[in-house]
Amino acid sequence: MSKVVGIAVPKKDGEGMIKGKPLYTNDMAMRDPDALVVKIMRSPHPFARIKSINKSVAEKMEGVATIITHLDADVPRTIYTRAGQGFPEPSPHDKFILDEYVRYVGDEVLAVAAVDARTAKEAIKAIKVEFEVLEPVLDFEKAEGHKSVIHPEPEAHEMFPIGFDPKNNLACSYSCEDGDTDLEMSKSEIVVEDTFYTQAQAHYCAETHNCYTYMDGHERLNVISSTQVPHHIRRIISKALGFDRSRIRVHKPKVGGGYGGKQQIHGEMLACLTTLRTGKSAICNFSRKEVFESTFSRHQMRIKVKIGANKDGSINAIDMNVLSNTGAYGEHALTVFMLAGGKTLPLYIVEGQSKAVKFGGKVVYTNKTPGGAYRGYGAMQGNFALESMMDILAEKVGVSPAKIREINMIKEGQTSPLFKLMGEGTEGKAMNIESCKLDYCMKRTKELAKWNDESQVIDLGDNKVRAQGMAIAMQGSGIQDIDMASAVLKLNDDGFFNLLIGATEIGQGSDTILSQIAADVLNVDVSKIIVYSSDTDTTPFDPGAYASKTTYVTGNAVIKAAKAMKAKIESKVASLWNIEPKNVEFDGQFIKSADGKNSISIEEFSSDMFYKMCGGQEQLMVCESFVPEVSPPPYMVAIADITIDKSTGHYNINDYFATIDCGGIINPSLVQVQGEGGLVQGIGMACYEDVVYSAGGQMITNNLFNYKLPARKEVPKITVEFAESYDPTGPYGAKSIGEIGVDTPMAAIANAIYKATGVRIKTLPLFPEKILLGMKNR
User: Fold this and answer.
1) For the packed helices 745-757 and 379-397, what is the interaxial angle rounded to 10 degrees?
2) What is the 8-class DSSP label of residue 459?
């Protein structure tokens, strides 16, 4: 049987999607015409206390089933975090199902469940709520110590020390240092420092946030949800509602995009309450406006970077300080902030090479839409600042942007003190980098872009200039020593297998990738692997789709399960033939004895296990788990090629070149689109996307008319290649690909703009008017 790893196998769900099969949450909900529709009244104020709720008129309206408020006896006052993360959660517990305080425009006030959406909306209009409007905190640089305390509730707490200080509007704070950074700065021949700002970015997914709940015949609460983290959702619902976890089933059908935005719990809690209260099924679908205003966005950040170097360009020390805006609640506050340094500084801070590093900062609460998980997860914010500073350093030293990186970037076999300082190593030890092809990526990307080390600018005449800018990046492959993934394999009659995984398919192709891995180990065609994923009742535990973990972490669990299944088949046949298992080999089609005397097809053997009275009947199943000891980083080198009109500041991206080291490649087609898709999302952050608020705290960009996303016209060409690489800890040498693509465009394009115009933009997005104003101010 031919191997299937490394082959562009079509996606398992591709045909069903093309044919429009019912695959999504709403497809399932629409089969239930009697389901109640849940709609949410949301706060018109950025910060207020609810003084009273008069729902008497609405309660009498025909078709209104129930109205849920924070005053109701069956709405538990249990504080929790909506972040779908491992337990104990690193996010502070600062959220109630419903509360007397509303903390941003769009926060939940109450919910109405009715026979249809129109009735629910009319009921909401009939409810009178009296607010005590409070002074909001809208400027994240003025949040710490502000007279308005956003979380005065005594129940708010941290699960372990994270620097939580709500009375000063601090969700968390942290600092670490290796070596004496101040001393090394004072000894450095060249010191550069500057401050950069990144904006909030909205998740745009084709499918909004949807859920459907019902009680089954065993009186168990079923939750169908477009989530990335079904097992975490079950735990959070159980805790917040005080409902036995064994009576909750969470099932994720197909998800129309996640990018981290569905790594939290949203409407599920109110739908569950509706079902528990009424006994009826319930549907809660968010409108596009609700997704923008009331779910999550990327964390806004201010990043200060200081670098000390020698005249030859070698770096002695880096000091990075971050202020992050978590908005009204602290979901993912600590971990996103940490990775702003943890997934950037190890690019250049290398043991035995650089001498000192310092990282620290704070995450503050404000009365804006909460920050949450988003592809790139802090790394892209830190990358914009650090990679902009590397170009600043290169100019100061008098070398090319490529050269300054080649002098300082981490190489295979090296390590960084940041890995153990910021939790990236195992048992306090630094993680050695066993696969790093940054040197090849640099060489190849320069070739693709026809990079000129002497000059990155070409004068095209008529006030137009063509320029190139560079950035490099790293990410991770799951969360080592924390996130465990499992896989179950079951042999069926006629010789095909069920692969049961908790891993969450959200469009990235994980069902296909994991099927390929299982098929390759078993040496069977991928069609023989029937995959079923993301059901807390029927699939084994998996933390879900985040942290670029699925191929690396769940893939390793699948390899273990497939090897165990192969061994179990051989052992079972050996016992039937009364020979040693080492003398039996399963080749994917036949099980044979080493001496060639015995042979049985997998189809015949598997049928015998169920139907023939041979005394050896047995259901063959295996379950294996994997916990990563390391998180090998993927790497990227990228060059943005732009043409800019200096009379207007307007620019076009001619091509975006990137070479990625993501280890061994399981499915070339899926890896390619992951790399390209990440780059487009990064280009959106760099050039177009900006979450904007009014002076009073109302989000202005709460629809697709006001929120600009890049389309094909804006990104006409992307050139992505992959380095030949193999990580010994990864499944078939694979590392992650999901996030690395999003990291580089902000700095690479900003660096290209500087080369073309001499204007260094330090505040995203990179709008043409900023360039024009910068040139005029110069």
Assistant:
1) 30
2) E
3-class secondary structure per residue, 194-222: EEEEECCCECCCCCCCEEEEEECCCCCEE
Query: How does DSSP classify residue 258?
Result: -
Task: Tell me which residue of 405, 306, 375 sits closest to 638, measured CA to CA.
Answer: 405
Please state, in angstroms and rounded to a whole number, the distance separating the CA atoms of residues 544 and 18. Answer: 25
Both structure tokens of 279? 């006994």
Running DSSP on this structure, what letter comes out for residue 777?
H
pLDDT value, residue 310: 97
The dihedral through the CA atoms of 334, 335, 340, 345 has a sign that is: positive
Alpha carbons 578 and 582: distance in angstroms, whole number: 12
Rounded Cα distance between 695 and 688, Å, is 21
d(CA 103, CA 107): 6
Q: β-strands 48-54, 101-102: how paired? A: antiparallel
Residue 73 CA to residue 39 CA, distance in Å, equals: 20
Nearest CA among 257, 374, 289 for reference residue 42: 289
Q: What is the biggest distance separating any 2 CA atoms in the chain, rounded to whole angstroms?
A: 89
| Side chain identity at residue 412, one-letter code | E
CA distances to 385, 400, 467, 749, 763 from 759, in Å? 15, 17, 13, 12, 12
Whether residue 27 contacts residue 207, with contact meaning beta carbons closer than 8 Å, is answered with: no
Sheet strands (E) in 462-564: 464-474, 485-491, 497-501, 529-533
Beta bridge partners of 371: 297
In the block, tokens 């849920």 appear at 68
Q: Report the interhelical angle of 602-611 vs 555-577 (nearest 10°).
A: 70
Q: What is the pLDDT of residues 93-148, one digit of tens each?
A: 999 999 999 999 999 999 999 999 999 999 999 999 999 999 999 999 999 999 99
DSSP string, 553-611: IIHHHHHHHHHHHHHHHHHHHHHHHTS-GGGEEE-SSEEEETTSS-EEEHHHHHHHHHH
* pLDDT computed for residue 423 by the predictor: 63
DSSP character at residue 298: P
C-beta of residue 477 within 8 angstroms of C-beta of residue 635: no
CA distance 639 to 628: 32
Cβ-based neighbour number of residue 237 at 10 Å: 24
Cα–Cα dist 520/166, whole Å: 52
Note the pLDDT of residue 426: 39
Angstrom distance (rounded) from CA 382 to CA 339: 8
User: Exposed, middle or buried, 582 (CB in 10 Å: 0-12/13-18/19+)?
Assistant: exposed
Question: Contact at 8 Å (CB) between 150 and 103?
Answer: yes
How far apart (Å, rounded) are the C-alpha atoms in residues 494 and 602? 7
DSSP code for 86: -
Q: How many CA atoms lie within 13 A of 770 on its CB side?
A: 15
Whether the predicted pLDDT of 427 surpasses 90: no
What is the pTM assigned to this prediction?
0.96
**In the structure encoding, which two tokens stand for residue 637, read together?**
């080198």
* pLDDT tens-place string over residues 689-708: 999 999 999 999 999 999 99
- 196, two tokens: 């950069």
The token pair that represents 673 in the structure block: 């689109």
- CA distance between the termini of the chain: 66
**Tens-digit pLDDT profile for residues 662-690:** 999 999 999 999 999 999 999 999 999 99
Cis peptide before 88 (omega within 30 of 0): yes
Phi-psi region of 509 (alpha: psi -120 to 50; beta: other; left: phi over 0): left
Would you state the pLDDT for residue 609?
87
| Cβ atoms of residues 529 and 519 within 8 Å | yes
172 strand-pairing partners: 363
Q: What is the reported pLDDT for 1?
A: 44
The answer to whether 514 touches 553, Cβ cutoff 8 Å, is no
Tokens 């003190």 map to which residue?
Answer: 417
DSSP H helical ranges for 261-400: 268-278, 288-294, 333-342, 379-397
Helices 438-449 and 401-408 cross at an angle (nearest 10°) of 170
* CA neighbor of 96 nearest in space, from 82, 113, 112: 82
pLDDT band at 615 (very low <50, low <70, confident <90, very high): low
